[in-house]
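Per your request, structure below.
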């Protein structure tokens, strides 16, 4: 069903890497969110006031916050598509994250105010009027909001858009709060227990929880998250499809917002190769990645002495030594620099995030292993962090 909707309302719907197409998806989910939440908001608040139910009013206010959030998301998506300018050379895509923070603040304010009102009703309860019509409407609201939530989340995952996924997740939380309200109504009707204030508190807690989660999930990409594994795999496949490339390392992906990614990496090549031909290969790789993944790429070329016998022997020594070192991911850029009195064995080590093994211990372990091969070998290690 969702594919049929995308095909009908989103022009060029399969080209999800294109910022314009992503904007159309966002406009679709945002418009749907505004329509559904606005209708539910008005009806819930009117009926909630009519039957003196703070829980229903709270649920309607949450729908109002969701409608405002959808409006902000639409505006943010429009700004995010603005091209790069003098003051923002990487574009404006991160505006989507800032909009999510604004939405989070609105949700928290609504949740806090409704919590205060609900606590007041717990202290000074007011009899609510039961209505099967209200129950029926709440069930209808659950179906409408649930369908909207599932479609929005699916669309957000389809285009890898955090703000859209967040909006769908918030709608899903609304469904849970609405179910709680219906349960409270039925308990009041059949058991005579007045739980409206307490149900309002539960709804407020859901609102506050969703606001906190939105903040956490929005701050994370702003601080810097690792790229998706499928992106890394696709880059690696393109790079290694060229026989001139011996290996790849120091791959880093920078995210400046949805659809605005930049990457850099080091490609190992045979030092005996023609420099102009190798440069042409690197240019082709950068273009292929850009065309396939819509990201700007910069490559550094590392020449390797493939047939150096000392380097060949050191490969197995280093690989064996790092197997027993917890937190050491791999090594690269192995070079042999001979001198009159000694030979330097130089290489880079990649440490996993949170590596607890001290660098001194790592160095001593590798230096000892290399010294056993030849007493004239000196070890020089550059430590790198694993960004992917």
């Amino acid at each position: 069903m969702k594919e049929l909707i995308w095909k009908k309302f989103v022009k060029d719907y399969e080209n999800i890497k294109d910022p314009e197409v992503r904007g159309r998806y966002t406009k679709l989910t945002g418009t749907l969110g505004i329509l559904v939440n606005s209708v539910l908001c008005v009806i819930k608040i009117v009926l909630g006031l009519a039957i003196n139910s703070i829980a229903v009013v709270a649920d309607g206010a949450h729908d109002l916050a969701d409608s405002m959030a959808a409006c902000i998301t639409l505006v943010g998506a429009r700004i995010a598509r603005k091209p790069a300018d003098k003051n923002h050379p990487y574009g404006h895509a991160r505006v989507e994250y800032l909009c999510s923070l604004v939405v989070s603040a609105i949700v928290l304010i609504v949740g806090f105010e409704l919590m205060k009102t609900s606590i007041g009703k717990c202290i000074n309860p007011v009899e609510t009027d039961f209505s099967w019509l209200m129950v029926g409407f709440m069930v209808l609201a659950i179906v409408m909001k649930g369908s909207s939530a599932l479609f929005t989340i699916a669309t957000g995952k389809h285009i890898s858009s955090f703000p859209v996924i967040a909006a769908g997740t918030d709608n899903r939380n609304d469904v849970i709060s609405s179910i709680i309200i219906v349960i409270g109504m039925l308990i009041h009707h059949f058991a005579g227990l007045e739980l409206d204030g307490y149900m309002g508190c539960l709804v407020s807690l859901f609102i506050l929880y969703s606001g906190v989660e939105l903040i956490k999930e929005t701050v994370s990409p702003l601080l810097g998250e690792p790229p998706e594994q499928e992106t890394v795999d696709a880059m690696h496949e393109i790079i290694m499809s060229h026989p001139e490339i011996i290996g790849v390392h120091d791959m880093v992906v920078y995210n400046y917002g949805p659809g605005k990614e930049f990457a850099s990496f080091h490609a190992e090549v045979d030092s005996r190769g023609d420099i102009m031909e190798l440069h042409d290969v690197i240019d082709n790789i950068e273009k292929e990645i850009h065309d396939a993944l819509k990201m700007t790429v910069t490559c550094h070329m590392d020449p390797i002495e493939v047939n150096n016998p000392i380097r060949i022997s050191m490969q197995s020594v280093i690989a064996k030594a790092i197997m027993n070192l917890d937190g050491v991911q791999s090594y690269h850029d192995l070079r042999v620099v001979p001198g009159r009195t000694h030979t330097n064995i130089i290489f880079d080590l990649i440490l996993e995030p949170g590596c607890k093994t001290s660098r001194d211990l790592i160095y001593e372990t590798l230096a000892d292993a290399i010294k056993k091969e030849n007493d004239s070998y000196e070890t020089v290690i550059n430590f790198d962090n694993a960004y992917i």
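The first helix runs from residue 2 to 9.

Regards,
D.
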